[in-house]
Amino acid sequence: MNMFLKIKYLLSFISRLILSVSLIILMSSYLSVRSDNDKVDSILSIYKDADKLSIPVSNVSFLPKPKISSRSWIIIDVNSEQVLASSNPDLKVEPASLTKIMTAYLIFGAIEDKRLDIDHNVVVSEKAWRTVGSRMFLEPNKKVSINDLLQGMIVQSGNDASIALAESMSGDEDSFVYLMNREAKKIGMNSSNFTNVTGLPDPCHLTTARDLALLSINFLKKHESFLHYYKQKEFTYNGITQTNRNRLLWSDSSVDGLKTGHTDTAGYCLVSTALRGDRRILAVLLGANNEAIRTEESLRLLNWGFQNFDTIAMFEDKDSRSLEARVWEGVSEKTNLRPRDQLWLSVPRGRAGDVKLVMERIEPLIAPLYKDQIVGVLQFSLDNQILKTINLRIQNSVNRAGLFGRVKDMIRRWFGN
């Protein structure tokens, strides 16, 4: 009987010991989770710009950048959002009628949000009628549809149409300009300031090639369904036919946009884009000396981008295992880490096999983990230069395991370390 009591006391002692150790480990786990959460915040603060435009791919190309006759230019692969090459991309210049890309961007957003009806008729104000510069020849107090105004602004580059559209959405031009600047800050156009909706000269109305590229990429990704306006070669209104000033529409069938601009102070400008196969290239050229140079140099940039670089789709389903990670204290021991969206990578032609991947992530990964939670970054490098950095996110949520499962993993980690 005494032996039985001794065994009973011993088992009771062991149980209390196990409980005490479990509580200690659970507290350690809590502190560990707090530490890992701090690490997530650190990664977010360091790599918060990870998904934006990356370094020029031409930096790791054997080919020299093209010599282009303009004050400023930049060429972007729209799929990967990588800069292929640039010259003075952050030089502040007057955008002239390239301003109308932002005007259209906001109008298309309002149409998609059902705040504007494309078939709705608006009354032309005297201000719109009196606007100087290029015109679609609106008449005061006459009704005109939003659809016709869009063609007048985009195809004919009508300043009167731009004013009429701004008034139809915001009531007056000043209110619309406020929305333009707010949207510019929202999408990262930090070197831009708009003072009007037309692009008429103003010393405070400024932007850069990089900012215009950023705006145009957002435009193409959000409002591609409206590109048919930019491919339209001519438009007739009030008995007057005017042709699209983007002469690339006649010289290359793959070109489907985007906008021309010209004033004496801005020079000749063009944001052009072309789709060949599943690749889209965007070129921004600012400050050419004449219309012919603007057209020829823009086409040369587009051809140079398509011919000398490859853009490849990364991490399709068959490659998902390469981003598998161990999870601790969860109902599942494995999870996949993925980019948020379809990932494309641009490289000099023929050099895709030379790209190296470096992954930096939280270790250990402790449940719970949530879908799309950022837990690290993935860098693509070529010749020891970073081509692109993207955030890595949890593909599927992982719930915490029960007490026994958590204690088991804690002991494994404890002795494993």
Automatic annotation (TrEMBL):
Substrate binds at K259. It catalyses: Preferential cleavage: (Ac)2-L-Lys-D-Ala-|-D-Ala. Also transpeptidation of peptidyl-alanyl moieties that are N-acyl substituents of D-alanine. It is an enzyme of class 3 (hydrolase). The active site is at S97 (acyl-ester intermediate), K100 (proton acceptor), S157. Pathway: Cell wall biogenesis; peptidoglycan biosynthesis. Its EC number is 3.4.16.4. This is serine-type D-Ala-D-Ala carboxypeptidase.
